Amino acid sequence: MVNLVKRTLTPAESNLLDALIRQGGLSLPASWLVELRVEPMDDGGMGSLRVVGPQPAAKACHQVSEIQFKDADGVDVIASLNVDDSGVPCEIDVWKVDFSALICLPESF
Question: Beta strands of the chain (E only): which ranges?
């Protein structure tokens, strides 16, 4: 069971989110990232995060960007940014293709 505690992003998660936002062509206010909190999702340790903001959680999210990389063990990982209908990020979905737990995110993207 994942501990669903709201927290700030780690530096590696922040780098991933920044890359996904750039790739998705999103424009968010600078204060948005400072106020951002996330909750780990119960995904077997692959690293998916639910974005928690001052607004109620979005009912529907859709993907706007995707980045692929290799985990430390050489297994492919796909990270996607999902946004709600107003373009606000609601989820960072991380999927390791063999369904094992993520070892670490790369330092840069």
Answer: 37-40, 49-52, 62-70, 76-83, 89-96
pLDDT in tens, 62-102: 999 999 999 999 999 999 999 988 888 899 999 999 999 99
pTM of this structure: 0.85
H or E element, residue 83:
strand 76-83
Strand partners, 76: 70
Letter string b/e over residues 42-55, b meaning 16 or more CB atoms within 10 A of that residue's CB: ebeebbbbbbebee
Residues whose CB is less than 8 angstroms from the CB of residue 60 and which lie 6 or more positions away in sequence, other chains included: 84, 85
Q: Which helix (DSSP H) or strand (DSSP E) does residue 70 occupy?
A: strand 62-70
Please determine, for residue 33, whether its predicted confidence score (pLDDT) is greater than 90. no
